[in-house]
Structure formats: C-alpha cells, structure tokens
Amino acid sequence: MDFIEILSYGFIQRALLAGTLIAVLCSVLGVFLVLRRLSLIGDGLAHVTFGGTAIALSLKLYSASALLVSLPVVLLSSLGILKLTEKARLSGDSAIGIVSALGISAGIILASAGGGYNVDLLSYLFGNILSITSQEVGIAAVLFCVVMLLLSLFFNDLLAIAFDEELARVSGIRTATINAVLVLLTALSVVLAMKLVGIMLISSLLILPAVSALQLARSFKSCVVLAALQGGCSVVAGIFLSFATNLPTSAMIVLLNLAFFGLAFLARRCLQPKSSS
Amino acid sequence: MPDEIVRTERLCCSYRTGRVLEDISISVEAGDYVGIVGPNGSGKSTLVRALMGLSAISDGAASLFGVPCSRFNAWGRIGYLPQSLHLLNPIFPATVAETVGLGLLSLKRFPRRLTAFDRTKVDAILEQLDICDIRSKLIGELSGGQQQRVLLARALVNNPDLLILDEPTAALDPEMRERFYSLMGEINRSRQVTVLLVTHDTGAIGKYASKMLYLDKRMLFYGNFEEFCRSTDMSALFGEYSQHLMCHRH
C-alpha cells in the first residue's frame, strides 16, 4: 500500500490534520513549561482529564461531547494548581501532585460506579487518534487558532517570565495574569491531546519536543520553531509508521519523539566545541 | 532643587521570621549614586525589593518618582539588575540580543512587540558596553562577567532614570568589580542616571558612590561619603583603622 493510498482514507486525513495541529500546540507550549520547570503540569492535568472523561462517560456522553465536558473541569483544575502554589505556599510540583491525585481518584470512583472500565475509557487512557471524528477535528482546529493567537499576543510576556519572573514584574508585566494564561492554554492543549496520545502519554508530547529543541536551538525563536517541527513531524511519521507496522499510533508518536531527542542530544555532543582544559 | 527619586518614611518590612527592616527614612535625589552596604541579613536587598514591590512593606511608606510604590507603574523609568548567577538558567535558549531586548518591554503596551527601531537600541547599548561581538551567543554559554554585562545592558537599554543593582558584583573577581563600579560611576555622571547599588563591598564602593546607606536592619548611617568618613558612629562600628582604609581614596 503506497502513501497516496493511505492518504485517501478519511480517518488518516483527520488524524494527520488534528494530530499535527495538537502536536504543534503542545510542543510550543512545552518550551515555556520546561523553562518554567512546570513540565509535569501536563501529567497532572491529564489525570484530571481522566476524571473529566469519566464524568462524561458516566453521563453517556462520548467523543466530542466528552471533550467538551472535560474542558471546564481541566481549565478549573489548572487554575486550582496556580491558586494552591500562591495561597497554600506549595511548590509547583506539590500542587500538581495534589490536583493530579484528585483527578485520578475521582475518575476511578466514577468509572467504578459506572460499571467499571469500558473500552471508551481505555481509549482515552492510551489514545486512539485514528478514531478521531470530523467534529473533533473541527474543535481541534478552532482551539488551535485560539491558542496560537493568544500565544503570539503574549509571546514576549511569556518569554520574559520564563527568563525571570521578578525581572518580568519589574518590567510591568502582570505575571499572575500571564501565568494563568499559560496554564489555561496548557489545559486546553491537554484536553485536545487526550485523543491523540492518550492521558498516559500527554506529558511526553509537551516535554520531548521542547527538550530536543533546547539541545540544538541557537535562539529562543529557533527553539520554538524546532519544537513545533519535531512535534508535527513525529505525529505525521508516527501515523504512517503505525499504519505500516500495525502498532499503536500513540506509542509510536512518543517513541519517535524519544528518538528525535536522542538524535538532538548526540548532535549537540558532536557539535559542541570541546573545552580546552 | 533636584527631583526626589526615592523616598521612604519609617519604612518597615517583615518576613515570617520577624522584622528585617525597621524605621528606614531616606531621600534619594536625581543623580545620586547611593551605595547600600551592611552585613549579611541586614535588609539591603529587602529595601530595594520593597521599593519595586517585590517584598511587602509592613509599615511606613515608600515612593518612587513621587508615586507611592504600591501604585507605581512607570516601569520604563527603572532598570533593575539582580544577582546574575542566581538568575540564569544555564539551558535558557535566548541570545544576548533577545535577552537585552526584554529590557524594552517595560516601555511597551499590550501586545508587547519589538520593532526594528528597538533592535537598533539593543545594538547601541551592546556597542556602548563593548559586547557587540557576543550578540548572537546564547546567554548560558557566557562567562560570569559577560553575563553580568548582558544583564546590565538589559537594565540600561530602556534608558532608565533609576538603576537598581542588587549585589551585581558578587560573581566577579576584584579587578572586574572595580571596573564595574567605575562603569556605574561613568553611567551615573554621563547619563545622570540615579543609582542604588547594594553591595558588601563597603571599601570599594566608597570610592565611587556619592552617598552611603549603612543598614543593619535599622539605618545606622545615611549621608555622603565625606560624612561617612567623619562619622564617629561608623568609627565605633568599624574601628578607626578600618574606617580610614575604607575612606582612603587612591
């Protein structure tokens, strides 16, 4: 079966389109999250997404409807993480841990009360990009445009805060607002990525393209572009490879990202000038 | 009469562990170069952080350019240089030019975009501080002295009226430290920039600063350098010999 034939399938077209959009989003956001040492927020919010999805499935809502039920739950939880760090004097990882535990335990209770783990819930855990619907592609496209617009508007503010939060405050940047924007955009992307790589692997899509780009980037802008390229390419290549090898797409995408990271790491080691000492 | 840039009245700051600053009343005028000195934990950094709203004021009042610090928003008039080595994330992928450009955001409104004209300002300050040759290098790849110059360029690029420097020479060797104080003196004179410089280096800063503020949670001395050298309080604190060494300008 050649590429053209594979591309003629509707489910492949939808997967390629939605997957690339979501991967680019996650990769760009990941650069800011990794630099802010908030990499694991994706993991925490993914666990909350599990809870949100369990709520949706217990209400007999599936696909796009499940996405729309999870969205407010995850958005509120992301703000909860921020509030916990501010008001309860917790570090970011502790706050993420608390919200994450709450999300996963709520999900387990709801799933158990709803008659146990069914196929739908498992598809959210491990992702099933090939089953993405046209409606979900539409939601992904709209949210992609919203998130990218907000990212471009707040780009310099986000960069300044990633560099140093106090210096950003002394530059007149409303750091609390920008932090809220960052976690809300992350929450949106996590909900979108749920169908792509699954709840278990979302954080890899946020972290791996960013850390690979950090190995090679020679400026902040090039770092963002490299991360987006890796995210997009890993999804496209992952879909084709999984189709050809009949292996799970989500795991293939993550493994490709790991391979890209390994290559970037090696390339940096080779390109780095050796110290004279 | 010169403009009053900084004013504090009976300023107090507290952390959960207790009071760290008590009853500080100072007035800094345009063009002053104030060396803020004192032992570790004496509240030097807390004072400058409180002025910028980074530490809470528990009692008293403080103003910048005549505006209470709690309502101050003319951030474009301030350049701030924190302790460089505490700041830098070694993997941060920004170039020197990108880092310095961040200093211009205080002059921008939402959405804060930098223009081609802004880039000429960045180039001009890099040239002035003699670091043009590293403009495309990543900040994490630079030496401590170079990083510190870059952060100084970031603080100066918006052409501030007040420059606040919090232990900027902590990572520098004695020769670089002298050059830094001298550079600050030159900027203070040539651009009429008011400078607040926090340092442990009581002896070295005395050669350049026009005023000295000696803190040890309370204000033990505030006045010009000549008064500092004649102060019997300071003689009692340091001993006459140490005071003589500090005040002996070569």
What is the SS-derived class of chain B?
alpha/beta
Q: Can you identify the CATH superfamily of chain A? A: ABC transporter involved in vitamin B12 uptake, BtuC
Distance N to C terminus of chain A: 55 Å
Query: So how many helices of chain B?
Result: 10
Rg of chain A, rounded, reads 19 Å
Radius of gyration of chain B in whole Å, from Cα?
18 Å
What is the distance, rounded to the nearest whole angstrom, between the alpha carbons of the first and last residues of chain B? 32 Å
Number of strands of chain A: 0
The percentage of residues in β strands of chain B lies in 25-35%
CATH architecture of chain A: Orthogonal Bundle
Number of domain modules of chain A: 1
The main sheet of chain A comes to: none
Considering DSSP H and I runs of 4 or more, what fraction of the residues of chain B is helical? 25-40%
Net shape of chain B: globular
Kindly report the name of the CATH homologous superfamily of chain B.
P-loop containing nucleotide triphosphate hydrolases
How many helices of chain A? The count is 13
CATH architecture of chain B: 3-Layer(aba) Sandwich
Organism (chain B): Oryzomonas japonica
Family (chain B): Belongs to the ABC transporter superfamily.
Pfam families (chain B): ABC_tran (PF00005)
GO molecular function (chain B): ATP binding; ATP hydrolysis activity
Description:
With 277 residues, chain A is mostly helical. Helix content of chain A is 82%, strand content 0%. Chain A has one domain: ABC transporter involved in vitamin B12 uptake, BtuC, CATH 1.10.3470. Chain A contains 13 helices and no strands. Chain A is globular, with a radius of gyration of 19 Å. Chain B is an alpha/beta fold. In chain B, the strands form 2 sheets. In chain B, strands 6-7-8-3-9-10 form a 6-stranded mixed beta sheet, with helices on both faces. In chain B, strands 2-1-4-5 form a 4-stranded antiparallel beta sheet, with helices on one face. The two termini of chain B are 32 Å apart. The A-B interface holds A 35, 152-157, 159-160, 162-164, 166-173, 213-214, 217-223 and B 52-54, 73, 75-76, 78, 80, 82, 87, 89, 91-95, 98-99, 102-103, 105-106, 108, 110-114, 136, 138, 154.
